[in-house]
Amino acid sequence: MSTRVHFQGRLINRDRPVSFKFNGTLLNGYQGDTLASALLANDQMLMGRSFKYHRPRGVVASGSEEPNAIVGLGTGNRFEPNQRATTTEIFHGLTATSQNHWPSLNYDVGIVNNLLSRFLSAGFYYKMFIHPRPFWKHIYEPFIRHSAGLGKAPGAESRDADRYEHFYAFCDVLVIGGGVAGLQSALTAARAGAKVLLLEQTAHLGGRAPVDGGTIDGMDPDAWVAKARAELHALPNAQIRTRTMGAGVYDHGYVLGYERLTDHAPEAAGPRHRLWRIRAAQIITATGAIERPLSFAGNDIPGVMLASAVRDYLVNFGVSPGDRTVVVTNNDDAYRTAIALVQAGLKVPAILDARPEGGGALMDEAKSLGIRVETGAAAVKVKGSKCVHSICRGVQAGEGEVLEEIFCDAVAMSGGWSPVVHLWSHCGGKLIWDASQATFRPDHDRAPTSHDGNPFVIASGAADGAFHLNDVLQNAANAGKTAAARVGAEKGDAAASSGEAQGEAPLVPVWMMPQGAKKQLRMKAWLDYQNDVKVSDVQLAAQEGFESVEHTKRYTTLGMATDQGKLSNINGLATLANALGADIPQVGTTTFRPPYTPISMGAIAGEARGDIFQPIRKTPMQGWHEANGAHWEPVGHWRRPYAFPKAGESVHDAVKREVLATRNSLGLLDASTLGKIIVKGPDAGRFLDMLYTNMMSTLKVGKCRYGLMCSENGFLSDDGVVARIDEDTFLCHTTTGGADRIHAHMEEWLQTEWWDWKVWTVNATEQFAQVAVVGPNARKLLEKLGGMDVSKEALAFMDWKDGELAGFPVRVYRISFSGELSYEIAVPANLGRAFWDKLIEAGQEWNITPYGTEALHIMRAEKGFIMIGDETDGTVIPQDLGLDWAISKKKDDYIGKRAQARSHMTDPKRWKLVGLETLDGSVLRDGAYALAEGTNENGQRNTQGRVTSTYRSPTLNKGIAMGLVLNGPDRMGEVIEFTAGGDDIAKAKIVNAVFFDPEGEKQNV
Amino acid sequence: MSDVALALGGASFDGLVNIEELAGQGMVTLRGDLSDTTIISAVKDVFGVTLPGTRETAFDGAQGALWMSPDEALLLCPYEEALQRADELSAKLHGSHALVVNVSDARAVFRLKGVMLREVIAKLAPVDMSPDAFTPGMVRRTRMAQVAAAFWMDDANTARIVCFRSVAAYMFGILSVSADDASAVNHFTR
Question: What's the count of helices (H) and strands (E) in chain A, helices before strands?
Answer without folding.
Answer: 27, 51
